[in-house]
Amino acid sequence: xxxxxxxxxxxxxxxxxxxxxxxxxxxxxxxxxxWELSNTDLQxxxxxxxxxxxxxxxxxxxxxxRTLMLRRWSDQPLLLCADVEEGVGQRFEGGSWLVPPxxxxxxxxxDPQRALDFAERYxxxxxxxxxxxGLNWVLGPVCDVxxxxxxxxxxxxxxxxxxxTAGALAAAFQxxxxxxxxxxxxxxxxxHGDTSSxxxxxxxxxxxxxxxxxxxxLPPFREVIAAGVDSVMTAHLLLPELDxxxxxTLSKAVLTNLLRDDLHxxxxxxxxxxxxxxxxxxxxxxxxxxxxxxxxxxxxxMPADADAAIxxxxxxxxxxxxxxxxxETSLQRRRQALDRIQKPPSPDQPQDTxxxxxxxxxxxxxxxxxxxxxxxxxxxKASQGVNLIRVDGLFPCPVxxxxxxxxxxxxxxGFKSLVIHSQGISPWQHQTxxxxxxxxxxxxxxxxxxxxxGNPFRGSQDSxxxxxxxxQQLQSLHRLAGLVIYGSPYVWEQLKTVLxxxxxxxxxxxxxxxxxxxxxxxxxxxxxxTTGNADFTD
Amino acid sequence: xxxxxxxxxxxxxxxxxxxxxxxxxxxxxxxxxxWELSNTDLQxxxxxxxxxxxxxxxxxxxxxxRTLMLRRWSDQPLLLCADVEEGVGQRFEGGSWLVPPxxxxxxxxxDPQRALDFAERYxxxxxxxxxxxGLNWVLGPVCDVxxxxxxxxxxxxxxxxxxxTAGALAAAFQxxxxxxxxxxxxxxxxxHGDTSSxxxxxxxxxxxxxxxxxxxxLPPFREVIAAGVDSVMTAHLLLPELDxxxxxTLSKAVLTNLLRDDLHxxxxxxxxxxxxxxxxxxxxxxxxxxxxxxxxxxxxxMPADADAAIxxxxxxxxxxxxxxxxxETSLQRRRQALDRIQKPPSPDQPQDTxxxxxxxxxxxxxxxxxxxxxxxxxxxKASQGVNLIRVDGLFPCPVxxxxxxxxxxxxxxGFKSLVIHSQGISPWQHQTxxxxxxxxxxxxxxxxxxxxxGNPFRGSQDSxxxxxxxxQQLQSLHRLAGLVIYGSPYVWEQLKTVLxxxxxxxxxxxxxxxxxxxxxxxxxxxxxxTTGNADFTD
Lengths: 538, 538
What we know:
By secondary structure, chain A is of the alpha/beta class. Chain A is built from 17 helices and 14 strands. In chain A, the strands form 3 sheets. A 6-stranded mixed β-sheet of chain A has the order 9-14-13-12-10-11, sandwiched between helices. Chain A has a 5-stranded parallel β-sheet with strand order 4-3-2-1-8. Chain A has a 3-stranded parallel β-sheet with strand order 5-6-7.
């Protein structure tokens, strides 16, 4: 095909845009229709030359079909990525969902070699399954150092709470990933770990000096770059000591002076999603893309309006605001990255299953077991009572399902499950010493299972649930049969300070069914799950 | 391949067994591991010659891959079926989920021709999508006459509340289905509509005389047989006037004398699932299969133990308890049915998408619109309050999801959603006049959305929720902003007797998101859904 110079520029610019699609095949299955383009728009943009797609939603099997579909709609090799930091199963049902990285960061303190081995297998498992699903770019490892437990957006996603741990494990993950022929992405540059506001909602400020950054934030990025990571994702953070005007994503001081010049990173620089409020509150879609490019980014992720971003960039190149050489350099970096990718299977080849192999299942189980904390006890003896489960939200609720051990195992021992969540009747009453409205929960001992990990978008909601007081309330009434925390080590550490040491209790960093099974078979003294669903259909 | 006579008998018998598999690809994804065979067992049984699989669970896209997988494991053509009475989307996410048949049974009273046209398109849509998913046998139409509103298991699954309606519409469905090259199945012979206990839990008794059966229960079966249905499924019902000892599934009087001889049905007779308690409480897996075959069945669906059923049948044929001619006849009926099936696509052909076409989407929407009942009103004006949603259970909860209009549309108008369900904190208090514990629900007007349809397995649970009194309670406090019933016409009719005619209210037989959208855009005076999810990821 031959194109006019304008068309040619437009197609070249389009190559550098990464748009968002649902992993489901049909428009009406999209979970976030506001953010996920319709098939008509996707097809049009891919035909216009858009070069990348970020996917979310659907199962691993659906994703495999979806990536084939996207490839058919394009006449060039695509970058196909997803935020599968914790394994493909974190985002796509049926894949391996692994314990959050911080669990290995904790393990590293007592057994660094074991943690490093795990991190490398973690990367290999994630890359292999991503490839089998048709992805070629994993948006990980997180290189942020979670030195601020109040961080609402990084938290257990980080590989460590100090720079050496985070750097060593993130690099091990990257080494495992590299072996699978899938690209990695170090994020969020220059470090998002020490923020206590959420960049999805507003622009956090990191007041640190270049010296402090060099000591705490940057070392993990240096290590992962040395391990050969292919791309770096920028953070939507203001670092006034480096650039008073622009967040890192749009800052030449950060992306060019610091990342390119000082850290000598020669790979792809990709923005974090430009639809996030930290950016859109300040800039239109076209201007944000131009500013990011001007600052030193190569790829524009999820612009609020892809067409506007493309026209804005074209105009900036035509007018000379952006030098043409920058375009050529970014295109070349993209080509080089694509050359490192293992070729995707052709549509008429029989495909590998995207689902876990035996070895990958073993890894899931070993990771859960290695990161579990059990408070020694004689196990839960109660044969009836309330199985009180706290989850963030229900729609969707990946941690619970008809066969979730968190429901089924206590039910098999006579407990009645009661699930509390943000869209249900509140279990709280306004009494400081007795915050749980016990009349709403029913009689008998209470097994408390809290699924809590510092999720983004939830602001301070978790902290307004007075679980410490609730634990004390139940203990004083001799009604606390057991306590399990799934997710945040900080919640576990906080509750342990009030927990009677005789109470059977456990902490699992992972929230997945395998973690529930391991915790509850131990706490309930089950040898094995025997409680299938009584109904044979629904 | 050549087999020894014993092996040969075993393979022939195995052809007549239909085993159950999850529609998901991996063992750990099974929702009902007690009933759904592991891949190892499936593969072994298919290699031993088992000739049919019934599938449940997973998405339409997963089902398509799953049926390819099952075909690869077998060296013969398989019967692959599912209970997709209400469209593929009823069981497999992403397919078309259509209004329950009884909705058309009601429409038939005022506009029979329109209802008949709809029923035929309904059958065509279901068959076409089933075929695109790799199924070749739809376990419908239901031919039961739901003349007993208390029926816990048939209810809205029936095409009518009288014999002529049920017969005409079920036959229209079958005509539509036939055109797609997919087999149908008339069920549950000789009629399960007039039962008020649930055969999943125990054996219901139908005390009717042959004359009554001939007038009410049998005519729909006659019509659907005349329309060329390929198979008939038996009911686990005791009909003492025909057979005092055996339920229909195991009764020669019912299957041979009535169905074969009187109704002249020459196609495949398949048992309902033999794992149901009505059978397993009385017979072992081997004996149940032999009794069913002796009674006149050709195919054994979901034996409690497939290996035991196969050995039991082999022994019965070897010992002469069952004549060999019966085996040959059943095998021949199966071959003839397979000959009528449109050939499945070969694995290396590009496949049709299993997802709805534009025309099928239109059918979904037209069906919802045609069956909707709105209580004329000026619409819901309240701009805050409680969006109280009642669902059966949460895990899974196909009617709600992150983007379900039942949640999103009222939330967009300032309502706070509160979801009540069997595993949540109860909204009830023990006060006859004021059964709703309003202090648990929060302030302001209440929009009440009840998802209720006579589901099996729930016993009388629905009836112990005093919704009539709750509606009166809210009305007397002037707090009922609106009422929507999704599902059962009987619940709607009951609540209408206490409902103030000024209250905006609606009834939709369908519970799917499309029904929610149509109801709420009308009740809330929305012109269009504008409320996407505020979060751009989860």
